[in-house]
Design a protein that fits this description.
By secondary structure, this protein is an alpha/beta fold. The protein contains 13 helices and 17 strands. β1 (21-26), α2 (30-43) and β2 form a beta-alpha-beta unit. α2 (30-43) packs across α12 (365-385) and α5 packs across α6 (151-176). It is globular, with a radius of gyration of 23 Å. The protein binds flavin-adenine dinucleotide. Flavin-adenine dinucleotide (FAD) is lined by residues 26-32, 50-53, 58-60, 75-78, 234-235, 250-251, 269, 326, 355-357, 363-366, 368.
């Protein structure tokens, strides 16, 4: 892998020999790495992958902490998908360890299953309902809504006010810094309620963790002679140094356009990692705290990774306004602001925007892989129909410029 050192020589050499890269890819997370892999291995293209952090993998990066426990520095990442294609694609770079995530929520002095299921309701209310009776119970407590607009509407119309207050209101206020009544219905509507005893957090067909971790998977993905990886480098430092034909940008879309319409709001998280001198800290991977403490949840990594170790490491998540951009804030005015950036992005002929930050949408890992594979297909078709020239000092070209030049 190329580190930043020595790049000056590479740049001079590339210019002197008239060589360059077919693709400049910004960001070595799932979006950038999948595209680098596909373009290099699938099409024989030369790719420069530039990452401003000191490692590959984006937010899915994992590493061993000082005690030797495998942790996720940017919060717990659990892989799950319903797509056989996406699972098979990633299986080229890793073996898997079957893992079904389980979450307990600490509510009214008890740790109960989340998503809400039959056991959750029976234990909280001291009842002994059957699945059929739970359906009737939920119908009796649900608040009828003509229109479900907000997250509050989405929850109270399904499970009623009391369960909403116990599980959703406090958690959402901590997580987003906003009341559920101020957030789009989409935020909470994807959280299911089950009338059976299924206590898995996800119901997807494929639920597994890379057997040696995400970083090893990314290393296998990027191990190709046509891929050069440059860490610790903002793409702006190199974008005009080396010739390239097409840019794939997976960073924040507002930053790309120098925040010309204003900053897109994100919610961030401060991760507090701890290593404890005990085998196990909690009974399941994650415990949520909807109503108590400033943190939202605690995750113990060994449940996720299956690692055997005398010690254990946990992470506490403290949501906050400032910090790395993690969660796009789903409010109509933010969607409208993003649309303005999206319209600008669509004008650019030789830049493709892919991934969570570049499209200002919260995506799970599998969705980003899917988005990147779709982008690859479009790029390969586009290349065949209109081969791109090598650009030297015009890093970004608008569609109108291209049309004018034609
Ligand atoms: C706390 C948390 C928990 C999550 N848990 C899960 C989970 O359990 N399961 C799941 O499926 N998904 C989970 N996700 C979502 C998952 O992290 C994303 O789907 C995935 O990381 C998105 O990949 P990406 O490549 O789009 O973005 P990223 O992983 O953010 O990668 C973008 C990369 O671009 C780099 N970059 C940005 N600007 C520049 C620049 N100017 N120059 C160079 N490099 C730049 C960044 O440093 C970053 O490494 C979670 C997300 C968060 C925040």
């Amino acid at each position: 892998m190329n580190q930043r050192e020595g790049f000056g020589n590479a740049a001079a050499l590339a210019r002197a020999t008239g060589q360059g890269f077919d693709y400049l890819i910004v960001g070595a997370g799932f979006a950038g790495s999948v595209l680098a892999e596909r373009l290099a291995r699938g099409m024989g293209r030369k790719v420069l992958l530039v990452e401003k952090r000191s490692h590959i993998g984006g937010n899915a990066h994992d590493r061993h902490d000082d005690a030797g426990v495998l942790i996720h520095p940017y919060g717990p990442h659990i892989f799950h998908t319903n797509s056989a294609d996406i699972f098979e694609y990633l299986s080229r770079f890793t073996q898997w360890r079957p893992y079904q995530h389980r979450v307990l929520a600490q509510v009214d002095g008890q740790a109960v299953p989340l998503p809400i299921n039959l056991d959750t309701v029976n234990r909280l209310y001291g009842m002994n309902l059957t699945s059929f009776e739970m359906e009737k119970f939920l119908e009796s407590v649900a608040e009828k809504k003509d229109r479900v607009l907000t997250s509050e509407d989405a929850v109270v119309s399904k499970v009623g006010r009391d369960l909403y207050n116990k599980f959703f209101r406090g958690y959402t206020r901590k997580h987003w810094g906003l009341d559920p009544s101020e957030l789009d219905a989409s935020v909470t509507s994807r959280i299911p309620t089950r009338t059976n005893r299924d206590d898995r957090y996800f119901a997807d067909t494929y639920q597994a963790m890379p057997v040696h971790g995400y970083t090893r998977m990314f290393e296998a993905m990027l191990a190709h002679p046509n891929i050069k990886v440059m860490l610790n480098t903002d793409y702006q430092e190199v974008v005009e140094l080396l010739p390239w034909k097409h840019m794939i940008y997976t960073g924040p879309v507002d930053a790309f356009f120098n925040y010309k319409y204003g900053k897109l709001p994100y919610r961030s998280v401060r991760f507090e990692h701890k290593t404890l001198g005990q085998q196990q800290f909690q009974p399941v991977g994650t415990v949520n705290f909807p109503n108590d403490y400033a943190y939202t949840r605690v995750t113990e990594f060994k449940h996720l990774t299956g690692q055997s170790h005398a010690a254990t490491s946990v992470v506490y998540e403290y949501p906050c306004a400032e910090g790395d951009p993690y969660y796009p804030v789903p409010r109509p005015e933010n969607a409208a602001l993003y649309k303005r950036y999206e319209a600008e992005a669509e004008q650019l002929d030789n830049v493709t925007f892919v991934g969570r930050l570049a499209t200002y949408k919260y995506y799970n890992m599998d969705q980003v892989v899917g988005q990147a594979l779709t982008a690859f297909k479009a790029l390969s078709e586009h290349e065949v129909s209109s081969p791109a020239p090598l650009s030297e000092h015009i890093p970004v070209r608008s569609r109108s410029e291209v049309a004018g030049a034609a």
